[in-house]
Amino acid sequence: MQHDSGTKQALLEKYRQGINELDEDLLKLLSKRRKLSLKCAQQKQQAGIGLRDLKRENALLKRSLAAAKKLELPAEPVVKIFQTIFEDSLAYQHQLINSQLTEQENNQNNLTNCQSDRQTTEKKPDGNNLPAQNIAILGGKGAYSHLAAEQYFSEPNIQYRAAESFSEVIELVQQGHAQFAVIPIENTTSGGIIEVYDLLLDAQLFIVGEQALSIEHCLVGKSNTQLSDVDTIVAHPQASKQCHKNLQALVQAKMELVESTAHALEQVVTHGSNNMAAIACEGSAELFGLAVIHNQLSDQKKNFTRFIVLSKTPHLPNIEASCKTTIAISTAQTAGSLAQALSLFSQAGIQLTRLESRPIPNRPWEQMFYLDFLGHSEQPIVAKLLNDLTEYCSRMEFLGSYINRETYYETK
Questions:
Q1: How far, in Å, CA of 378 to CA of 370, rounded?
Q2: Could you tell me which residues come within 8 angstroms of residue 119 by beta carbon, excluding any fewer than 6 positions away?
Q3: What is the pTM of this model?
Q4: What class, spelled out in words, does domain 317-408 have in CATH?
Q5: Distance of CA 301 to CAs 203, 210, 216, 295, Å?
Q6: Is 84 an active-site residue?
Q7: Residue 276 has what pLDDT?
Q8: Pairing state between β 134-138 and 180-187
Q9: What are the residue boundaries of the structural domains of the chain, listed by start?
């Protein structure tokens, strides 16, 4: 028996060693792929082409699924693996391109500083470096919407259109002044952003993407500001909510709410004394030349905001991709109509990931329900579900199908 047990253990170790060797080969191949993707990025940059090519991603995904089928591999994990590879490749390309742009900008600044103070130079647009597209965001550079947009879009020459309110962000896209809008929809600490849900219903825009951003709030101020100096804190309402408990225990100060984190940072910069601080992340503070007074300000350690990307056209992803769909429904005013509508998801085996309700203006006690669920609108099972829902709904609005990026939330 001991001999038999020893043989089995030896075979197990042999198989494990084989797996270890395959894992090393996989890592080497991933490294080679990364290097090739960087060369592609450099060629795209020279040609003035955006880094992200959804058609190319969909074609690669389709080819990989066909190969997986021949190898008798299940589709779902293959899709997730390749989507993760795509996201890593884009992040890697974006990081290196940004570092090159920063180096070029620093070199240009050094050259400008060496010139006479009386000389002024006007930077003329280069035909090869015109903005690839306009993105509407709340606030401006340094705002969390700006950070989320930078993570989602990979083109180096994007022009950001700053707006003063969520409604203005949406209007910029509706009026054709921006191709996309990046706007927060929910936070893991403060919940859904009700103003955005209310605006979505009549915006006539589609959700074409999502981006989760780890929100690491800090208290920031001028370099000589101490915590004991602070008597006024400026912040966006959502940032204030997400740090309420920690702020109360940390400092006794008046809270002033502003339109965006970028506005908060601007106020601190232009304030005449050092007794004002803002709630922002460290990276945003650096953009404005401010310093961190106190970090880890969020009430919850794992604090994420989910942003959605809006467009006038749907931009549906590959039907084989891991997708999410968002709809808004108002159920018939009969007993059990909502329960019957929601039961359709269970019957179809479709997973609901979010349900948010909002009162309908001028219609007392009637609610609009916003639903996120896993699946693509063109998948037969989802198309049937949407058709069946109409039986129980007085109104239904399709808000978009897009790549499900919740898989990539960093939860460390």
A1: 19
A2: none
A3: 0.65
A4: alpha beta
A5: 34, 22, 8, 11
A6: no
A7: 95
A8: parallel
A9: 2-93, 130-214, 218-294, 317-408
Assigned superfamily of 2-93: Chorismate mutase (1.20.59.10)
Catalytic residue among 86, 166, 206, 307: 307
Segment 183-228, tens digit of pLDDT: 999 988 888 888 899 899 889 899 999 999 888 899 999 988 999 9
CA distances from 250 to 218, 246, 301 (A): 12, 6, 16
CATH superfamily of 130-214: Periplasmic binding protein-like II (3.40.190.10)
Fold observed for domain 218-294? D-Maltodextrin-Binding Protein; domain 2 (3.40.190)
Alpha helices per DSSP H over 216-336:
237-242, 244-250, 261-270, 282-287
Cα dist from 176 to 86, 149, 158, 205, 207, whole Å: 30, 18, 16, 12, 16
Q: 50-59, 146-155, 233-242 — which is least confidently predicted?
A: 50-59
Q: What are phi and psi of 18, to 5 degrees?
A: -65, -40
Q: Is 202 helix (H, G, I), strand (E, B) or coil?
A: helix
| Catalytic-residue membership of 305 | yes
How far, in Å, CA of 2 to CA of 4, rounded? 5
Token readout for 6 is 């020893």
Active-site hit among 189, 261, 305, 326: 305
φ and ψ at residue 195, rounded to 5 degrees: -60, -40
Q: How many residues does the chain have?
A: 412
